């Protein structure tokens, strides 16, 4: 901030707390991005003569920005990303997943991007109930789970498989690729489409992280808002035609989807973090 808006130590501490709170509340996003938005919001008040309410105003402004679908478009983080598109181990999986999904979906498929943002936010909440080593895996998979819908990735037309193959080709850890490949009852859809052998390129781990990804997807509406599993199934049937492979596959995977949701809800109850 400029010398015209020097804050008292207590206000500086409040701003630090604002930053920590926003990093925690938006832990599906790269922390660097959240901090950038806090700094950007703070810069708006450099000429404030009365600084008492600056921390509150910064928090409101940053929260509004962090909820915007265009978040990150002008951040240094976005500008510094590897132009090749390949995953770099010097970068967190969560950061690469967020950036890649944004690049592929935000402009071309804004509604799919809204859903993805909702799934990732839910995944960040659920991840608190998982072992530390699994948290980033879940959040990254949540960001990436629907990238196979992007036009440039379409090969087989089976979005789980097309997305997983794209990720594998870019050096993403095999576990994340497999979670993307098998999310939302993909095996039953692959059987309907005659792509079971191709899907078998990726292992289905059938554990809590896989269940959690299914839960996040199956309890998030197309517009990114939270819904119940029953509501999501009604919406799915209303949106797709009866001859759609996804609908045909429900005879084989709806109970499997429900079981994954139920197991995750039990996990959340057991850790007192139901979302």
UniProtKB/TrEMBL annotation:
Transmembrane segments: none annotated. It comes from Amycolatopsis acididurans. Signal peptide: none annotated. Residues 112-188 form the HD domain. Coiled coil: none annotated. The lineage of its organism: Bacteria, Bacillati, Actinomycetota, Actinomycetes, Pseudonocardiales. It comes from the Bacteria. InterPro entries: HD/PDEase_dom, HD_domain, HDIG_dom. This is HDIG domain-containing protein.
């Amino acid at each position: 901030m400029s010398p015209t808006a020097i804050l008292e130590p207590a206000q500086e501490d409040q701003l630090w707390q604002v930053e920590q709170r926003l990093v925690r509340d938006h832990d599906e996003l790269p922390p660097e991005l959240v901090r950038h938005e806090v700094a950007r919001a703070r810069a708006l008040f450099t000429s404030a003569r009365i600084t008492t309410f600056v921390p509150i105003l910064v928090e409101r402004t940053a929260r509004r920005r962090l909820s915007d679908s265009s978040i990150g478009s002008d951040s240094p983080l976005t500008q510094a990303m590897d132009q090749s598109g390949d995953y770099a181990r010097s970068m967190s999986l969560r950061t690469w997943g967020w950036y890649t999904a944004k690049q592929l979906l935000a402009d071309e498929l804004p509604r799919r991007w809204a859903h993805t943002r909702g799934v990732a936010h839910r995944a960040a909440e659920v991840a608190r109930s998982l072992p530390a080593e699994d948290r980033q895996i879940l959040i990254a998979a949540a960001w990436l789970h629907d990238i196979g819908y992007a036009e440039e990735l379409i090969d087989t037309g089976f979005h789980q498989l097309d997305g997983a193959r794209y990720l594998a080709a870019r050096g993403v850890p095999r576990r994340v690729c497999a979670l993307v490949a098998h999310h939302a009852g993909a095996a039953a859809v692959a059987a309907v489409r005659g792509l079971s052998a191709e899907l078998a390129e990726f292992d289905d781990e059938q554990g809590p992280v896989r269940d959690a990804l299914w839960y996040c997807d199956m309890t998030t509406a197309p517009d990114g808002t939270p819904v119940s599993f029953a509501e999501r199934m009604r919406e799915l049937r209303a949106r797709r035609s009866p001859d759609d492979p996804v609908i045909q596959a429900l005879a084989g995977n709806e109970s499997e989807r429900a079981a994954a949701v139920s197991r995750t809800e039990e996990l959340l109850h057991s850790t007192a973090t139901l979302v």
